[in-house]
Amino acid sequence: MRRIAFGGLLLTIVAVAPALSVPGRSGTAAPPTYSDSGLEAQLARVYAEIEKNRLDKALELTESLLRQHPNFRLGHLIKGDLLLARARPISTLGNAANAPADRLADLREEAIARIKAHRQKPTANAVPRYLLQMQPDQKHAVVVDTQKARLYLYQNDNGRPRFVADYYISHGKLGAEKMREGDKKTPVGVYHVTTSLPRQKLTDFYGSGAFPINYPNEWDKRQGRNGHGIWLHGTPSDTLSRPPKASDGCVVLANADLDALAKNLQPGLTPVIISNEIEWLSLDDWQKERSALSKTIDQWRADWESRDTDRFLRHYSKKFQAGKQGLAEFAQQKRQVNAGKEWIKVKTENLSMFRNPGKEDLVLVTFEQDYRSNNLSNQMKKRQYWIREDGSWKIVYEGAA
Amino acid sequence: MPSSLPTRLKTNPLAAVLVALALGLAAPVASADNLADIQKLIKSGQYPQALEKTDAYIASKPRDAQGRFMKGLILTEMNRPADAVAVFTKLTEDYPELPEPYNNLAVLYAQQKQYEKARTALEMAIRTHPAYAVAYENLGDVYAKLASQAYDKALQLDSSNAAAQGKLSLIRDLVSTNTRPGGKPATVAAATAAKPAEPVKPAAVEPAKPAAEPLKPAATVVPVAPAAVTPVKTAEAPKAAEKPVEKPAAPAKAADAGEAEAVNAVQGWAAAWSKKDVKGYLAHYAPDFQTPNGMPRKAWEAERQQRIEKPGKIQVSVDDVKVAIAGDKATVKFRQNYKSATLNSSAGKTLVLIRVGGKWLIQQERVG
């Protein structure tokens, strides 16, 4: 009877996990090529045994899990429950009487996050909406779901993101959508890894390494967001994983997971997109979104070449801002420049498009711009933010990357 | 002395082991007086004298399990856990079939907070004697302790990267304010104290029956034991059969005695049934009796009660009895003649009995 109660409890936890809703997602899931350190799979086996009321087997599996990962605190909690279940009835996950409630709650959240993640692996025919276009030299992209406490690694397969692996992560103690220095929140937006800090340069707190990202980016600054030092990093040596909400804003992975991830990170290049909750698109919908925007960008390029300044300027938002220049100043300058042109040729190469997570339709577009004209040639790396305005895509920011 | 056995076991290791001694080890008649003297010395707290006598006794009978067991007890009482552990460990090596030394080893390990070792020892005790209630109780406590240790690992290692010093003080803090399973503050400082303080919880009296275990030594087992056991000195022949450690020469005779006992038990069972004495009838079943289709014991008992108490006479007799004994297990095959108001049958039946505290109890019942 006790055992049933215990199994029932875990079932309840598992049942909390809602089905992952993906618009237009259907068909069978293709198995991922490889995945994380296997903790979730092992946990799932433990839970399966508990559900079948085979507590001895569950304990055996838990102990074997702990031999591999002696610092896995959630594992110790489950072990405690399974042992206690032999001695007396237990009522919940984590039956340690008088234990600090916040720590118990943390471990329960971790349990739920890990089990949910295991049951809701992304499928091959759904992609995060944000990865509209990876540039050819970006081998991988990272997408974080703070609510699910999960990081997803995607491979660039000729521009199409292909799922590689996913990892449990911790984020800010006070959640996501960072605004201010010290608010203990993780930023939401499109970033990239700026550099790699090896273990030797860090204290034990950061574990096996760190990868700073470029928060605050141009868009953050424009929104008045501040703060700094948002990293992806590992865990202290006595800790396998931290609770889902634990950091001052960083994204924290288990050391083994960070090591595996690190192999795929290119400093200065690999995009890191952090969301509250990933929006998934079917491949069809994803294709539609990306080609619509691609077309608009190419139209902008062609209109620039046309030297028809009004045609060109229709691609710019009323809220356009580049440095101190608003739309009026920008328009005036373009008219002046265009007056002296006999011909213009513009090429955009190595282009990427990453949608900013959130309700707003906002896409970060980056490319190498090759500009030639009768009196001036210039090559630069350009960054633009495109926003949806009155039903069409408009440039709301542009500048050198 | 052992009448309050179940509760005292938990708090007083000596009482626990003494009873265990009485339970498990039948002294050869010749040495009974010696051992009785030693027990008197122990009772009055004269441990050095008791130890001296025991050593002398063992010197004359180096292989004697009884004497060595006694020595282990005295050493335990004298706060010499390491020596006591050595004595009991050697006993488990020489007599792996005895559950008591394992149990006492576990008690000593638990005192030293070596709960994993305690767990292993108790699981061994239960493996040798699946119906050994004391070991189950202790094991329940050890599980609770292990659980508490696991919880400490889960919750007390600080997650904010505090220095080692900070972690230590945190542990002390939480443990000492904690009334976890034992309801007993198990301070870290007390860990080294050799005092045979109760390693296990004194509260939570419900004999922690591991629901997870295949067997359920319900509380009923415990009362059975002391009653059957008290006369250590008398050590009747059948008892020797139970544990032929000392006299490997006598198995044949002992087996005969066991056979007679087993048949008696079956006769008693049939008689209780015939008398419609439900209580007496159910008392013939071992705590770990395998109910039909694994139905809950309570439900099965209720069903039996209902059937047996049906109006009308019942007459049950057995004949053509064949017994096969292997250690503490007896397989009794017989013809069961059953007569009631509604049914008259005669069919083959097999009962598998196990010896629990000197009584043969039914573990399996099947037709054919």
Task: Characterize the structure shown.
The complex is a heterodimer of chains A (401) and B (368). Chain A is of the alpha+beta class and 401 residues long. Chain A folds into three domains: 1-121, no CATH class; 125-278, Beta Barrel (L,D-transpeptidase catalytic domain-like); 283-400, Nuclear Transport Factor 2, Chain: A, CATH 3.10.450. Helix content of chain A is 33%, strand content 29%. Chain A contains ten helices and 19 strands. In chain A, the strands form three sheets. In chain A, strands 3, 4, 5, 6, 7, 8, 9, 10, 11 and 12 form a ten-stranded mixed sheet that branches. A seven-stranded mixed sheet of chain A has the order 2-16-17-18-19-14-15. In chain A, helix 2 runs antiparallel to helix 3 (55-68) and helix 3 (55-68) runs antiparallel to helix 4 (73-87). The longest helix of chain A is centred in the last third of the chain and has 24 residues, at 283-306. The termini of chain A are far apart. The longest helix of chain B has 24 residues, at 133-156. Chain B has 15 helices and four strands. Chain B is elongated and about 65 Å long. Chain B is of the alpha+beta class and 368 residues long. Chain B folds into two domains: 2-194 and 217-227, Serine Threonine Protein Phosphatase 5, Tetratricopeptide repeat (Alpha Horseshoe), CATH 1.25.40.10; 252-367, Nuclear Transport Factor 2, Chain: A (Roll), CATH 3.10.450.50. The A-B interface holds A 1-3, 55-56, 71, 73-77, 79-89, 94-100, 103-104, 106-107, 204-205, 236, 238-239, 242-243, 246 and B 139-141, 143-144, 146-151, 153-155, 157, 159, 161, 174, 177-181, 204, 206, 208, 210-213.
